[in-house]
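Fold this sequence, please.
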Amino acid sequence: MTNDTNSATPKATVYHDGDCPLCNKEVKLMQKMDAANAIKWVDINQDKQALLDAGITHQQAMDRIHVADESLQMHTGVAGFLNIWKHLPYYRRLVPIIKHTPFLLTIMEGGYRVFAKHRLRLTNRHAKHSEDTAGKL
């Protein structure tokens, strides 16, 4: 799903896997919270051109969430989430806590890496993604 309701430069552009049920639940929650339409949401499976324009391969986007900030600097993983959260009510309060609590960012990134590595299996999409990737080789 791409959110094109905001004609101004977005505060963040999120490149997410719209076919991931777990990811979609979180994205939909954040979209509801984004009342200011500060964030542009790009489904990497629906908008291949956006990936090309951002210089991200589909495989890179599948491996880790990517978020471009308003200066177009790319952030991935937990750093990407922090870039999203700082524009959302409630979540924005967590950002300084996460950044300034010793080891918390490292622990969260470790948890994210485990999730990202196994999310296709967790959502029963591993075989489908393997077939799609094999067909592109």
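The beta strands are 12-16, 39-43, 66-69, 74-76. The CA atoms of residues 19 and 45 lie 7 Å apart.
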